[in-house]
Amino acid sequence: MRRKHIALLMVAVISLVLAVALGGCASEDSGKLSVVTSTSLIAQIVERVGSDSVEVVNIIPPAQCPGHFDVSPGDIQKLAEADIFFMHGWQGEQFTQDLIASADNPDLNTVVINIMGNWMTPPIQTQAIDMVAGILSEADAENSAVYLESAEQMKSSIQSKGAEVKQRLEDAGVSSVNVLCADQQAGFVQWAGFNAVATFGRPEDMTPQIVKEMVDQGRAGGVTLVIDNVQSGQDAGAGIAEELGSARVILSNFPGCYEGTDTWEETIDYNVALLLDAISK
């Protein structure tokens, strides 16, 4: 912890120097709300709900786990100039409190969207859209009607896509497919209709004993598919799948992780295509 605090202090000093040096090159105020998001899950909602009235900058890359993220001087500068900072409030985002303090922005409105559940499921996604639209409307009442209309359009798209992919999964008979999955994918796997026999953690947690236990449960439960999560460590289930001789897929919990998956709809399509392809072989 001491090393991390020293690193944050150094980052803050560097950031201050850069801010002074580049102050004369700052662009004129666009008149739009300046929003920073902790993850692409929130960013893609703010971009679509905010439309042309909001400028969005995301911090954590889509392929990276929030719990293994290191701040940079640029991240501090983003918050120093922002109006709103949206974050999840997950345990993996503990770095954010030091980041907010280092930004030293008394006008920054920090909003925690603390929704329990997997954000790749339609119910959680629609809850988040409503929360984002409400906050943007409070911060910019003049464009409230635009935000609320965009939110309704996005929720309609989410619900339509959710119903479509759920039907595809049901038609494929996924309820009879027994799986082992990364714990970060458990909520989505359950919503999708698979029968999750057990869940497993990150690669660093996979001791030989735990792998053996997972393999034993997989054999006893007739598991034919192992589902990994790219952000928490895509190889966590590799050894289990090899021992079981089962198929394995690596899903993403964040839009933008793979090419052509910038939105929630594109990401769920990508994930479901992987799943359907795996169980069809």
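Second entry:
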Amino acid sequence: MKIKLPKIVKVSIIFLFERFGYKNISKDGIITTLNNIIFTKVGREGGLTREKWVEETIKKIPPGSKILDAGAGELKYKKFCSHLKYTSQDFGGYDGIGTGEGVQIGTWDNSRLDIVSDITKIPVPDKSFDIILCTEVFEHIPEPALAVKEFSRIVHPGGKVIITAPFCSLNHFAPFYFANGYSKYWYEKILVEYGFNIEEIFFNGNFFEYMGQEIRNIRERALKYSKIDTKWWIFFRLAEIVMLQALSRLSRKDKGSQELLCFGLHVIARKK
């Protein structure tokens, strides 16, 4: 059954759309425009941006280079390393369930790892690798500076480390979660201290994108950690739509809010 909106409702909706900057909306375009507002991309693309950056960075590595995927987990980046001599390493202790606190994956496969060891004590000779890849691992290490020290030992002079880690994050993979994230100042101090020159620091997202991500997560968090009458969800949804639209516009006009908050930093550094 086709729902026919009263004229006054249509006029009111079109007026609100135009206040948001959507001009010349026909009556038949109301639903399309509403979808554009509801399904704005703000807050959705932090992970996609990181995956694309890692993939493109790996593809630039000269063929035949020896790469260590440190903290490789389930080897998600091995598929991009067919032109390289790939070795994976992880401590192999996470099972997908952990303590059950925070965000957990549910299942986890450690069976394909080449090296099972502490990331601060990897059983390979000095200068074994040309490249070390370490993605979304540092927040799961009690002392990540010691991992950088180990990378300095096992990478060739002139070799590189490719690192991604959160700038801010929620509790995940507990009990193996020791920090929310790391700022550019941490990398500038620790990498230089252990003999690396930083070649690139890429900020993934910004303040408005991060806020959009967490607004999208409110319903899921509320179902787990709060209790509210379901009749209120329509009001939460309407508030979410308004806030996401506002954050989308603010993000498009962003003037450097990544220095305040973002999803994470992506770093490339070369060993002296």
